[in-house]
Amino acid sequence: MRLWESINRYVAFKVKEAEFRVHTWRRSREISRAYDTQHTRPERPTKPPKPERAVKPPRPRLERAVKPPRPERPIKPPKPERAVKPLRPERPPRPPRPPRPPRPARAPIGFGKLAPYAAKGAKVLGIAVAAFLLVCGAVFAFQRISVSMAVAKSADAEKMLDDEGESAALQNIPEDAVLPEAAVLPEGFAENAAAALPADTSVPLEPAAAAPAAPPPAPATDRRIVEAFRAGIPAGVSDWLMLVDKAAKVIYLMKGGQSGWEVAKAYPIATGENDGRKMIEGDKKTPEGVYFIVGRKHRSELTNIYGPAAFILDYPNEDDRRERRTGHGIWVHGSERGGIPPLFTQGCVALPNPDILDVAGTVKSDWPGIPVIILSGEESGKKHLASVDFGKLKSRREEVVALHNEKQAEFEALVLGWKSAWEARDISEYSDFYLASMFMDGPMRWEAFRDRKKGLFDAYSAIHVDLSNIVLTEYTNSSATVKFNQVYNTNRNNRMENAKRLIFRKDQGQWKIYREIPFPKEELLL
Fold first, then answer.
1. How far apart are CA 223 and CA 201, in angstroms?
2. Sign (positive/negative) of CA torsion 381, 383, 384, 388?
3. With the C-alpha atoms ordered 270, 274, 276, 279, is the resulting torsion angle positive or negative?
4. Contacts of 375 (CB under 8 A, 6+ apart)
5. Cα–Cα distance between 45 and 311 in angstroms, integer?
6. Which of 44, 132, 348, 521 has the most CB within a 10 Å radius?
7. Any idea what the Cα angle at residue 179 is, between residues 224 and 184, rounded to 5°?
8. Residue 17 — φ and ψ, nearest 5°?
9. What 3-state class would DSSP assign to 371?
10. Residue 247 main-chain phi, psi, to 5 deg
């Protein structure tokens, strides 16, 4: 099939090449004829006839002297005739050969004579069968080894990229960002909350009708942890909250309301390969404490390891830096395994791809500042409940949201200024928004990008750009990412609609566009 497809592609290519040559020849002939009709030379004026030259008198010819005739050559005498050779005597005829005697009839071949040949054939056939089985076994073993090597490479890639990620793909959390700070819970809170639970732990946390999707079965200690958090988190902290139980491998998406906190959904997860709290970079552990979502990544920004969506946490926060915990790039993301989470990660919290999409579709644009509480689940959560100050949780979240809203307004104004310069077709003002020394549009560097834009500005008399849904999805001290929907149109009705991602970098105290990347607009709907 591959050979046939290759032949088809080759024939199709040659046909296209012939069509292109014929089209080019016809086009060049038309252009040549049009050029000849437009550039015909005017007729030259006829020149007057030249005057006739005077006839020169004929030159006198001198008569040549008559040569004397050549003398006749003497006649050669005829050659003498050759002597006739005598005839050879005739050979006597050969005597006839005597007739050959008839061959005797062969005796019929019996089984005794065929037995040696049959033995040799069986031996050769056995050797051929053994060689065939040996080759099949070698091919099967090679396939198994190749699959094992591919699985090992995939595991190594996940180990290298899952927790800390690739340095080019990860954005460091700003050092001066307002981050959560853990304090001490009032003494006896965990014990009182546990004592307030019913004795029958088989009772579900909430009525079946209240939860759109029933959480997976979890140990009784997990339900005690959820009940303790529901009793301790004050109302109005946030519309959404995520509770990660590392021991039970479950993440709870909790929704706050007037009647308190309820578990909206629960999903299976995978956490770090090693148990315990993250302390240093590369220890393959998931951090524990109170964190907030400060960034959002879509499918076009992620490799297969992280699935179709990811939420960026503000690890390390002030508590982590004070305790000298290191590392970065802790996300809540999907999985390259599709519908099931991986066995373990390098420190992130990984969900199946349908579940991370469900989380993204549930929280939608309310993701900035969602608290994410990560605990080990040991001792009914008493150990880590004591490190969470629910009273300060609301104020810390308000600070994170206020910082995000401030930067959102700043970059929204910057993007609208960039849009105005684009519509004004002012190449000088438009160029001031870009980091010319580092900007690249795919393989195109800044000089070629600027020349192309200038050519478009000169070609159109009017350009209209409509922007909507401008969102700041990532921010650090040195870089930021802004996404929006864009509708581009000109006076010639060259309408284009897509989503665009602008990546900014700070250069001498000013934000400049470092990358300009279009992506499918459907991603912004999540």
1. 8
2. positive
3. negative
4. 225, 243, 244, 245, 246, 288, 381, 384, 385
5. 87
6. 348
7. 45
8. -65, -40
9. strand
10. -70, -45
Cβ partners under 8 Å of residue 203, min gap 6: none
- What is the residue type of 266? A
What per-residue confidence (pLDDT) applies to 39?
A: 65
DSSP secondary-structure letter at 176? T
- Interval 462-515: pLDDT, tens: 999 999 999 999 999 999 999 999 999 999 888 999 999 999 999 999 999 999
Question: Global pTM?
Answer: 0.57
Contact 519, 300 (CB under 8 A): yes
- Residues 513 and 502: their CA atoms lie apart, in Å, by 7
**58: three-class secondary structure by DSSP:** coil
Cα dihedral value 363, 365, 368, 372, nearest 10: 10
Query: Is there a cis peptide before residue 99, judged by omega within 30 degrees of 0?
Result: no
φ and ψ at residue 333, rounded to 5 degrees: -140, 180
From the centroid of its chain, how far is CA 480? 21
Contact 281, 343 (CB under 8 A): no
135 close to 143: Cβ distance less than 8 angstroms: no
CA distance 311 to 50: 99
**What is the rounded end-to-end Cα distance, in angstroms, of the chain?**
42
Q: Counting Cβ atoms within 10 Å, is residue 404 exposed (0-12), middle (13-18) or buried (19+)?
A: buried
For residue 411 the two structure tokens come to 């970059």
Name the region of 379 (left: φ>0; alpha: ψ -120 to 50; beta: rest).
left
DSSP annotation of 434 reads: B
Q: Alpha-carbon distance 226 to 205, whole Å?
A: 8
In contact, 288 and 330? CB cutoff 8 Å = no
As a whole number, mean pLDDT of residues 230-253 equals 85
Element (DSSP H or E) covering residue 444: strand 444-445
pLDDT at residue 116 greater than cutoff 80: no
The H or E element spanning position 156 is helix 111-161
The CA radius of gyration of the chain, in Å to the nearest whole number, is 46
DSSP-assigned states of every residue in 255-321: EEETTEEEEEEEEE-B-BSS-S---STTS-----EEEEEEEEE-GGG--GGGTT-EEEE--S-HHHH
Q: Which residue has the tokens 């909250």?
A: 241
DSSP 356: H
- Locus of tokens 């009032």: 186
pLDDT of residue 214: 39
Q: DSSP letters along 495-523, please?
A: -EEEEEEEEEEEETTEEEEEEEEEE-GGG
Q: Give the list of residues 6+ apart from residue 236 with CB closer than 8 angstroms, or none.
A: 256, 394
Residues 6 or more apart from 106 whose CB is under 8 A from it?
none
Instruction: Give the contacts of 205 (CB within 8 A, at least 6 positions apart).
Output: 215, 223, 226, 227, 230, 263
Sign of the Cα torsion 55, 59, 60, 64 reads: negative
Which token pair is 256? 């706050």
